[in-house]
Design goal:
alpha+beta, Jelly Rolls, four-stranded antiparallel sheet, 7 helices, 18 strands, globular, binds 2-oxoglutaric acid, binds fe (ii) ion, oxidoreductase
């Protein structure tokens, strides 16, 4: 295949997707149906926890430990809500470019439509629509998160808001199960999300003449606490398998969500649950949509390893505290355009032990 794309999209040779990708060794598939019959227990050491729930907590703990990624079914989010978002997404991205650009992100307001995002300073083969649950403006007015709703399709706002309300409930359940798997009270982490900075995105990947040279989203780790991702039937999400560093394609499963641990859970758990690199590959034939919900704490949160999970002698804290709001705004400004420097990573807060 020749160079049929703008060089701004072309990945360095070592980061290009291989023509064949392993679909062996799939990420764990977890059935959340025990939650339909039992409440989430509050205390991990409660002797009356039903076996079904203990097994579920153990499966989530093992998936976080071994993969940092898993898929869930019987998750309680009504499929119709997702289908409505998929329908409005299809309509929105099919609009003429000038129509989409009327709600375009800019240097101050980071929300709306955007088609020139960079991951690690290489342009992504994608266009996105971003919104937040809670709007925000920095004290000096230099950074703003203000939702921009297009005139078309008119149902976009309602479809997104209803979907997000339901996915947020799922995210809380998962955070509680993850807390229990770390032997913490179920609601140990909930307070951080009270005025959460949740971020919602619709990714649209057009077919590409050179899928061997570009990526829909370059390799990255999600910087929030937990991501709840819906992908369509096309497939293209690749996860870096922890056991051997190989890229593995995540097979689309109807009516499932892909869950991954973000950098904040990695820091809270003092590296027990690692945030794992992933990317989106594209193809020559089919457009693809993916819809991540990034569940993240209040911007004022100072993120550091949880005190209950560290001990000065055996397991000292591996990170210095960092402020989530500063981190988030720095990451957002680094994906706005190509820069000459690397973006902020949690490794910058790693302590020399
Ligand atoms: O498209 C996908 O499957 C992954 C998207 C992703 O990783 C992201 O938006 O952070
Ligand atoms: Fe991601």
């Amino acid at each position: 295949m020749g160079l049929e794309v703008d060089p701004a999209f072309v990945q360095a040779a070592e980061h290009r997707p291989k023509p064949t990708i392993s679909d062996a060794g799939e990420i764990p598939l977890i059935d959340l149906s025990p939650l339909l019959h039992h409440p989430i227990p509050s205390d991990p050491s409660d002797p009356s926890i039903p076996d079904e729930i203990s097994s579920l907590i153990a499966a989530i703990g093992a998936a976080c430990l071994d993969w940092g990624f898993f898929q869930v079914v019987n998750h309680g989010v009504d499929l119709k809500l997702l289908e409505r978002v998929q329908a409005v997404a299809r309509e929105f991205f099919a609009l003429p470019a000038e129509e989409k650009r009327r709600v375009k992100r800019d240097e101050v307001n980071a929300l709306g439509y955007y088609d020139t995002e960079h991951t690690k300073n290489v342009r992504d083969w994608k266009e996105v629509f971003d919104l937040v649950v809670r709007e925000y403006e920095s004290d000096d007015g230099s950074f703003r998160l203000r939702n921009q709703w297009p005139d078309h399709p008119p149902a976009m706002r309602e479809a997104c808001e209803e979907y997000i309300a339901s996915v947020e409930k799922l995210a809380y359940k998962l955070v509680e199960l993850i807390a229990l798997s770390l032997n913490l009270p179920a609601k140990r982490l909930n307070g951080y999300f009270r005025d959460s900075s949740c971020f919602f995105r619709i990714n649209h990947y057009n077919p590409c003449p050179s899928p061997d040279l570009v990526l829909g989203v370059g390799r990255h780790k999600d910087s929030g606490a937990l991501t709840v991702l819906a992908q369509d039937e096309v497939g293209g999400l690749d996860v870096k398998r922890k056991s051997d560093g190989e890229w593995v394609r995540v097979k689309p499963i109807p009516n499932s969500y892909i869950i991954n641990v973000g950098d904040i859970i990695q820091v809270w758990s003092n590296d027990k649950y690692e945030s794992v690199e992933h990317r989106a590959s594209v193809n020559t034939e089919k457009e693809r949509f993916s819809i991540p919900f990034f569940f993240s704490p209040t911007f004022s949160t100072n993120v550091k390893p949880l005190e209950e999970l560290v001990s000065d002698d055996k397991n000292p804290a591996r990170y210095q505290e960092y402020n989530w709001g500063h981190y988030f705004s720095s990451r957002l400004s680094s994906n706005f355009k190509k820069l000459d420097k690397d973006n902020l990573q949690i490794s910058h807060f790693k302590k020399a032990l």
